[in-house]
């Protein structure tokens, strides 16, 4: 089974029916897979804070949401995470492409990569880092944990996890 | 009319609906005029009322009315294409367009100058955009509720705020009672 199908199977198995995405090259396969599934309503966002608003609404409407985005978006969603998702205590799994890590070819991506974990830690957001493909085995538990504690939870997936940026 | 006068007039219409209300003075005014469990008050996060309302409308069948502002929509303009391409028939985005950032001291927004929010919504793919003057808000809103079509309702009104207390209700309580109203 492809890693993309495996990830989306876990989303579906955890009752996630509403997924918003902002693309990243590393996430192209998983976004395609989300789009293919009948059990998931896929709504692309133009910006990640907008996407978190959609997820907040979907959650209050009775659907389990998830957002798929790049780590650069942490820079534009801190206010939304603090004053909407955390303040109103809502669960939000964030599947995040961790650009700027090992096997990254674009130097500028490193500039946000070096802040990513520090910002998530500052926000007290539980954070998991998938570096090898076998790390995906924890995804199901992470999703259960997210809905158990009603918090935003970050799953950082680096280029090595995806098989290398541009050389997959 | 100013926003609070409009809210007072449409309160009987809003009372039976799910309402997502914009941050700041709009939420304070709605809360003071007619607090309901079916009102979701935004206490922070400028700009996202329309997005929260859209997610809610997509997730369940009841009508959702978003009370937004021109400044807030300008903050989150990416919302208009998302609405234009996805909004279901139970979604009503009511933009109280007073041409100013009311909660921060009535500084002018660009909609009071050359920018036309209704035109931007249409260009973004919103098929049913209605522009009304403040005094016509009630009938226009009732028509939108009865119509069952996704609607962007731009209400042109005067700039100004009523003096209302800050909302001190705990956000988790606001959210919890709202979710119960959604399920009821």
UniProtKB/TrEMBL annotation, chain A:
One Pfam assignment: TPP_enzyme_N
Tell me the ranges covered by the Thiamine pyrophosphate enzyme N-terminal TPP-binding domain, including all copies. 3-96
The organism's place on the tree of life at top rank:
Bacteria
What molecular function terms (GO) are annotated for this protein?
A: sulfopyruvate decarboxylase activity; thiamine pyrophosphate binding
Which InterPro entries would you find in this protein's record?
Sulfopyruvate_deCO2ase_alpha, THDP-binding, Thiamin_PyroP_enz_TPP-bd_dom, TPP_dependent_decarboxylase
Q: EC top class, in one word?
A: lyase
**Gene3D superfamilies assigned to the protein according to its UniProt record, in alphabetical order:** 3.40.50.970
Its Enzyme Commission number?
Answer: 4.1.1.79
Keywords on record? Decarboxylase, Lyase, Pyruvate
What protein name is recorded for this chain?
Sulfopyruvate decarboxylase subunit alpha
Q: To which species is this protein native?
A: Ruegeria sp. PrR005
- Underlying gene: comD
Automatic annotation (TrEMBL), chain B:
Q: Name one GO biological process term.
A: small molecule metabolic process
Q: Where is the Thiamine pyrophosphate enzyme TPP-binding domain?
A: 41-155
Q: Which UniProt keywords apply?
A: Decarboxylase, Lyase, Pyruvate
Q: What Gene Ontology molecular function terms does this protein carry?
A: sulfopyruvate decarboxylase activity; thiamine pyrophosphate binding
Q: Which domain of life is it from?
A: Bacteria
**EC primary class:** lyase
* UniProt cross-references to Pfam families, sorted A to Z: TPP_enzyme_C (PF02775)
Q: Which EC number(s) are documented for this chain?
A: 4.1.1.79
Q: Which SUPFAM superfamilies match?
A: Thiamin diphosphate-binding fold (THDP-binding)
**Xref: NCBIfam families:** sulfopy_beta
Quote the protein name from its UniProt record.
Sulfopyruvate decarboxylase subunit beta
């Amino acid at each position: 089974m492809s890693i993309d199908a495996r990830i989306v199977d876990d989303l579906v198995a955890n009752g996630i029916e509403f997924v918003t995405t902002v693309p990243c090259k590393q996430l192209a396969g998983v976004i395609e897979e989300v789009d293919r599934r009948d059990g998931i309503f896929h709504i692309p966002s133009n910006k990640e804070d907008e996407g978190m608003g959609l997820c907040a609404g979907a959650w209050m409407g009775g659907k389990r949401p998830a957002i798929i985005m790049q780590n650069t978006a942490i820079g534009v969603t801190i206010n939304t995470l603090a004053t909407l998702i955390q303040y109103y205590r809502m669960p939000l799994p964030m599947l995040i492409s961790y650009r700027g890590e090992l096997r990254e070819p674009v130097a500028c991506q490193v500039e946000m990569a070096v802040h990513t974990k520090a910002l998530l830690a500052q926000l007290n957001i539980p954070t998991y880092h998938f570096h090898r493909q076998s790390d995906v085995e924890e995804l199901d538990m992470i999703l259960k944990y997210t809905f158990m504690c009603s918090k935003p939870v970050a799953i950082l997936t680096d280029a090595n996890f995806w098989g290398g940026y541009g050389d997959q | 009319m100013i926003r609070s006068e409009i809210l007072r007039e449409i309160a009987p219409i809003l009372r039976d609906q799910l309402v997502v209300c914009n941050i700041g003075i709009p939420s304070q005014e709605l809360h003071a005029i007619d607090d309901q469990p079916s009102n979701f008050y935004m206490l922070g996060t400028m700009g996202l009322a329309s997005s929260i309302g859209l997610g809610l409308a997509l997730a369940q069948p009841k009508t959702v009315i978003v009370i937004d502002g021109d400044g807030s929509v300008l903050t989150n303009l990416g919302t208009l294409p998302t609405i234009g391409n996805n909004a279901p028939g139970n979604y009503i985005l009511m933009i109280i367009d007073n041409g100013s950032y009311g909660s921060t001291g009535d500084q002018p927004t660009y909609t009071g100058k050359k920018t036309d929010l209704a035109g931007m919504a249409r260009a973004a793919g919103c098929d049913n955009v209605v522009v009304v003057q403040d005094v016509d808000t009630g009938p226009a809103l009732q028509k939108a509720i009865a119509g069952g079509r996704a609607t962007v309702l731009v209400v042109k009104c005067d700039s100004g705020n009523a003096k209302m207390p800050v909302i001190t209700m705990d956000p988790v309580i606001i959210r919890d009672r709202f979710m119960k109203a959604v399920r009821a």
